[in-house]
Structure formats: C-alpha cells, structure tokens
C-alpha cells in the first residue's frame, strides 16, 4: 500500500509539472488569458510599426512615428487603457521595398513579440499576407490593395482600393466641386505613376470626379514611379491637349514625392497652364522652407484625409499640443497626422475590447461593429471599411507661401466602383 501511495504521488507530481510546462508553452505562444497574449502583460501592451523612412526616390513617411508616439504618450499619461500603458518600440524601415516590409513585419511579431503593428505607413508594404495569416492587427494609411479585404488591416481611412462593385470614394470630387462653385462643364485630367497603388488610385479618383459631375478627359499611368523623368514634355503635351485639343480645367496628380510634383507642375506652368491643380501629397510644411519649391507649388490644392493643422477644431488643437509635448519644435506633416490618427483608432478599439485582452478578442471587437466618429479624420466603420474607403477628406490650398484651409473635413457617400 505504501509503495502504491508513493507511486501515486509521483504520478500526480509529474502531471502537475507537465501541466505547468504546457501552460508556460501556451503563454510563450500567446495563448491563455490577457497576460499570456503576445505583447500583453498586466500593465503594458507592446506595439511597433513599419514605415518607409528612406527610399531611392527620397519619399519618406518617417514622421508617422512621431505622430504615433505623441498619441501614445498622452494615453499613457492618462493611465493607459484598462490599466495598461502602451510600450511603443518604434518603427522599422522598409526602404519602400515589399520584401523588406515582409521581413520587418516578421521581426516585429516573431522576435519583438508585439501585440499589433502601429503605425504601418509604407506604399509597397509587403507584410500584409503574413499578418493576416498570424491574426496580428495592423493600423495605418490604407494606400494600396494589400489593406483591403483583410480582417487584420485597419486603415484609418478604410480601403482605398475597393473591388469592382464595392463602395468607392466621392469626397475628393465633391469637395472640389463645392470649392469652385460647381462641376458643370468642368474637365479633369488624372496623372498617376506606374506603381500599383498609384494606378489603382487613378481609377478610383477618376470615378470620384466623374461622380461629382466633372468630365474625365484623360487618365495617364505611364509615369515611372522610381524617379522623376528627365523630360516632362511628353506628359505635359498630353495634358495640354486632352480637352478637345486644349487644356483641362483641373489636373489631379496621384504621384508620391515633392520632386515629382515640382517637376510636373513647373513644366505645366511653363507651358502656360492656368487651370487648377490638386494632389494628395503637397500638404507638407517642408516645402515652405524652400522658396523655389513653394513657388512651384503655389496655388496647388492638396487633399488630405484628415482635418488640416490650420483648423480651429478642438481635436486639432489637441494634436498640436500632444506633438509639441512629445517632440518640441516638430514640424507638422501629413505623415505625422497619419501616425497620430492610426494610433488614436487603435486606442479606441483597445478600449472597446475590455480588460481581458487577446488578439482574438481585439479583432472580434473591431470587426463586430466598430463605429467611431472624430472630426480629426471623419468616421471609420468596421467591418464595412475593410472593403471600401471611409469617404472623408479635406482640402488645403497653398496661397501666398502659406497653407490655408480650403474645405474642412467632410464625409460623402461612396458609390459602387465600376
């Protein structure tokens, strides 16, 4: 009997050790309760991002890191979310290379063990498939099709590359129509580069202007995305003769980088173009520091998908204060705002998820019925906006060497993409 009792005690002890080891393995893999989830402890949530900090073309989204850090700092100073502060480890650089973006995402998840990727702001981000497979949430500016149709990718502006039949934005065209007093009899020419995101943007934005009543007289996606062309004349000639042999009323540029914009707009003005020019990237305080660049972009109407920094909205005053506190003297840029609002939405979903935090619970809260309005960026609704844009944007005009709010943030109904 004594020998049997000793044997029984030994079996119980072995089972307890095995159970403890299994629990430890589950915790290490991210299973179990909140403290067992990857990147989550009783007091912290770890996140990191992927940005195009450097690239061959000079395009950089590095300021998104400052914006996210500023928003997280305010949240932490307020006690965090459900007692957990945000441990922000910064952002990896993908060099505008899809393979490097994939490697960066894997490093953050597998080595750094982050809970989520915030912010992701990289035009050629290559980590989407991996993150979707692993069930890892990621937040940023949805600039390409890799953001669309996922359960884990949360663009603060929704999905800018909807599939045919899904909702496509009309806000840019409608905001421009309101600004100029109507679109009747007005023509538009859309210039993009040959990158996948730019070409798809040309398709959706062309339809935005058509839906607002403009006549589309040209869509050119032949501009090389790697570097500005040595000769702008072929592109300018097409634009200047696109409207029955004459110039269009409006040129819309869907190309990334100040060098491209300065080259194209300078060449257009030299050719005698007197119409309107609008793009998505020229709202950048850096251009004001260079008189030559500022002159080349004078009169351009930029279309940010957030409320401009010059706005008097309380949410923008808060953004300015947060950035100044986190990084005194920092120049406010479009990329900074994108990082800030991506972090803001992440925090909102984190709050809605509750104290028991795992990726599964987080994604369930986000994709169940998440509806968040904020004058800073408009409105976001998930799961709806996994397949279409949020339909919101503003207009800013460079006038007299300074940016001025042309149209405050406003949202419009989407229309099915043809």
TrEMBL record:
Matches recorded under InterPro entries = Leu-bd (IPR028081), Peripla_BP_I (IPR028082)
Residue span(s) of domain Leucine-binding protein: 44-401
Pfam families, per database record? Peripla_BP_6
Keywords on this record? Signal
Signal peptide (residue range): 1-18
Task: Provide the family line.
Answer: Belongs to the leucine-binding protein family.
Protein name in the entry = ABC transporter substrate-binding protein
């Amino acid at each position: 009997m004594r020998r049997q009792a000793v044997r029984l005690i030994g079996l119980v002890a072995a089972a307890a050790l095995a159970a403890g080891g299994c629990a430890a393995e589950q915790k290490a893999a991210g299973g179990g309760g909140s403290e067992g989830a990857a990147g989550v402890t009783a007091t912290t949530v770890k996140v990191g991002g992927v940005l195009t900090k450097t690239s061959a073309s000079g395009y950089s989204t590095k300021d998104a890191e400052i914006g996210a850090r500023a928003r997280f700092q305010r949240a932490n100073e307020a006690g965090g979310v459900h007692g957990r502060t945000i441990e922000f480890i910064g952002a990896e650089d993908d060099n505008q290379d899809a393979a490097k973006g994939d490697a960066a995402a894997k490093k953050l998840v597998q080595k750094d063990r982050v809970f989520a990727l915030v912010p992701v702001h990289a035009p050629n981000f290559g980590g989407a498939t991996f993150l979707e497979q692993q069930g890892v949430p990621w937040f940023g500016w949805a600039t390409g099709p890799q953001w669309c149709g996922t359960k884990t990718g949360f663009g603060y502006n929704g999905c800018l590359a909807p599939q045919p039949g899904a909702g496509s934005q009309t806000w840019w065209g409608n905001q421009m129509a309101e600004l100029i007093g109507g679109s009747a009899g007005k023509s538009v020419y859309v210039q993009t580069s040959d990158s996948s995101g730019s070409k798809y943007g040309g398709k959706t934005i062309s339809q935005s202007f058509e839906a607002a009543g403009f006549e589309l007289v040209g869509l050119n996606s032949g501009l090389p995305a790697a570097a500005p062309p040595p000769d702008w004349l072929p592109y300018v000639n097409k634009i200047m003769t696109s409207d029955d042999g004459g110039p269009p009323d409006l040129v819309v540029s869907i190309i990334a980088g100040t060098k491209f914009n300065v080259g194209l707009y300078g060449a257009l003005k030299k050719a005698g173009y007197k119409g309107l020019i609008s793009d998505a990237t020229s709202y950048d305080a850096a251009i004001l520091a260079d008189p030559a660049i500022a002159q080349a972009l004078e009169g351009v109407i930029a279309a940010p998908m957030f409320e401009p920094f010059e706005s008097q909205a309380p949410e923008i005053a808060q953004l300015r204060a947060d950035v100044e506190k986190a990084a005194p003297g920092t120049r406010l840029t479009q990329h900074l705002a994108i990082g800030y609002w991506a972090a803001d939405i992440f925090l909102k979903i984190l709050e809605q998820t509750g104290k028991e935090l795992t990726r599964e619970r987080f994604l369930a809260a986000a994709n169940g019925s998440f509806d968040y309005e904020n004058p800073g960026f408009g409105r976001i609704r998930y799961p709806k906006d996994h397949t279409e844009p949020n339909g919101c944007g503003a207009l800013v005009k460079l006038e007299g060497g300074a940016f001025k709010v042309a149209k405050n943030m406003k949202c419009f109904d989407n229309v099915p993409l043809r």
